Known about the structure:
Elements: E1 2-8, H1 12-23, E2 28-31, E3 43-46, H2 48-56, H3 60-66, E4 68-70, E5 72-76, E6 82-87, H4 89-95, E7 99-103, H5 104-115, E8 120-121, E9 126-131, E10 135-139, E11 144-152, H6 159-165, E12 170-183, E13 193-198, E14 202-208, E15 213-221, H7 231-234, H8 240-247, E16 254-262, E17 269-270, E18 273-275, H9 278-281, H10 290-307, H11 311-340, H12 346-354, H13 358-369
Parallel strand pairs: 1-2, 1-11, 2-8, 5-13, 11-18
Antiparallel strand pairs: 3-7, 4-7, 5-6, 9-10, 10-11, 12-15, 12-16, 13-14, 14-15, 17-18
Helix pairs in contact: 1-5, 1-10, 10-11
Amino acid sequence: xxxxxxxxxxxxxxxxxxxxxxxxxxxxxxxxxxxxxxxxxxxxxxxxxxxxxxxxxxxxxxxxxxxxxxxxxxxxxxxxxxxxxxxxxxxxxxxxxxxxxxxxxxxxxxxxxxxxxxxxxxxxxxxxxxxxxxxxxxxxxxxxxxxxxxxxxxxxxxxxxxxxxxxxxxxxxxxxxxxxxxxxxxxxxxxxxxxxxxxxxxxxxxxxxxxxxxxxxxxxxxxxxxxxxxxxxxxxxxxxxxxxxxxxxxxxxxxxxxxxxxxxxxxxxxxxxxxxxxxxxxxxxxxxxxxxxxxxxxxxxxxxxxxxxxxxxxxxxxxxxxxxxxxxxxxxxxxxxxxxxxxxxxxxxxxxxxxxxxxxxxxxxxxxxxxxx
Length: 373
């Protein structure tokens, strides 16, 4: 059986691409290794750039109704004294969209429903891909198929990248990250704001994602990490709100990961095949742009297909358009991650950060939020 187009991976990037291809009335199948779309990763922020694209896909209002609109993002010190502010209201007006914090599974389910569950094959973990006349795809469950066009949306550990491109240096930032989800009543002034609190070699962030749910994350430098680490003791010098959020969270609602990214790879495409999202340009989460950039990938591919149905020339143009922006985000996100995790000189860091004019912050943010085509 020959599939015209196969998308490997039903993450946010793969599902958005499916929605884009559906708009173009193209025949495709999405293959996902997981047996179901589960709430892994707890919460996520869809920035204004992603929300503009969801608007074009007719999904903006649904996402807003299932998530929580976020109008400001603050970086503070341990006592919640502001270091840096991103006021999104002017940008919301300019781009007619706002940031939305949402449960990751809620977003994926919305995208899956819209793409059509009949176009998604769950429990299909890719084992091997080979280039013959077409691409031969072999899955761990024994299923095999041929595909003319393949998109690798299979994440930072992409089997497609490893097997076809034989490249990809995954870098470890030396930071451990906990992500949690809890039922918690935030003070009203934080209902539509996201906070990231910088301490000495550690950070804590939180945002409301629905009526009762708060998503939070905590980072410590690897050299301070132990298997039995007690986060309430680690963050006991932070504002009491942080400790209350931590104490309210059930252990089963916390996941632990390393902070990693992908060193830039030379090429994202081969004949009739293209990588998108984390498979091509995984970034650390410090700018909140990982998933948003995979959504932009899907959008740009869709825009290029409007005027050109030759996938190979689309893939080449896609990389030319997207390369500079994602390389900048990967680089800047890595730098921000290092600065925010300083173990010494924090007062100097905070002073220097406070001295950056808000207008410069706004310009940097606007550059990220503006779509390329």
